[in-house]
Write a structure and sequence with these properties.
Elements: H1 9-18, H2 23-39, H3 49-88, E1 94-98, E2 101-105, E3 108-109, E4 112-116, E5 120-129, E6 134-143, E7 146-150, E8 165-175, E9 178-179, E10 182-196, E11 199-204, E12 209-211, E13 217-218
Antiparallel strand pairs: 1-10, 1-13, 2-3, 2-8, 4-7, 4-10, 5-6, 5-8, 8-9, 10-11, 11-12
Helix pairs in contact: 1-2, 1-3, 2-3
Length: about 220
């Protein structure tokens, strides 16, 4: 009894390629299947040369993709190790990262910063207390794009020292009457780093975490 045509071998090759075997094992199984099919072909309906060539090309493509995936996985692993080493050099360094939480302790306020996606003709940073009351307003005027560090002396708009406690900062910016993307940045020290499934994470002295890619400035 004749074995079905070479076209049915496509599904078998795909199944072999998706298994967790090596490229060499996959090729050996494919060749064994092909030889068996050739030995049992119908003499009155021999295999078509073009179809056979197409099937061999598909197998070569599957093998090439598997080798490419292996190479990419190796590059990703090397990149992860490189990022971890780079992040480790930030331990005990102070960084500016996205965040809004500020504080005053013993009369000393946490410095902060802003990050503008593009230039603006009006930039304002507003510090509010835990109840949402405005404590200090910074009118920064026109600013170019990029990161700007801001020093807060811990005083309110009346020039009086604000109480120790938690605060937050909001940033707004406009250019020609249209809003410009602007984010607040907080200042914190890196105490340790960790490598996870999502990449390198920095553990900060304020108890928070951030990714290495979110570091806007190293001080």
């Amino acid at each position: 009894m004749a074995v079905s045509g070479i076209g049915s071998n496509t599904d078998a090759a795909a199944a072999l390629a998706s298994a967790s075997t090596s490229s060499a094992d996959t090729e050996q199984r494919f060749l064994k299947l092909l030889v068996t099919q050739l030995n049992n072909q119908d003499p009155l309906n021999p295999l078509d040369n073009a179809e056979l060539t197409s099937q061999l090309a598909q197998m070569s493509t599957v093998s090439g993709i598997e080798r490419l995936n292996t190479a990419l996985q190796s590059l990703v692993a090397q990149s992860g190790s490189s990022q971890t080493l780079q992040a480790a050099s930030l331990i005990d360094r102070t960084v500016l990262v996205p965040g809004k939480e500020l504080s005053i302790k013993d009369g000393v306020a946490t410095p902060f910063g802003i990050n503008l996606e593009s230039g603006a003709d009006s930039v304002k940073a507003t510090v509010v207390d835990a109840a949402g009351n405005v404590v200090r307003t910074f009118d920064l005027g026109a600013q170019s794009d990029g990161v700007k560090a801001i020093a807060w002396d811990g005083k309110d708009d009346a020039g009086q020292s604000a109480a120790d406690g938690s605060y937050s900062v909001n940033v707004s910016a406009t250019a020609g009457g249209s809003a410009v993307a602007a984010n607040a940045l907080i200042l914190s020290k890196v105490v340790s780093v960790a490598q996870g499934s999502t990449g390198v994470t920095l553990n900060l002295s304020n108890g928070g975490t951030t990714s290495l890619s979110d570091v806007k400035q190293i001080l």
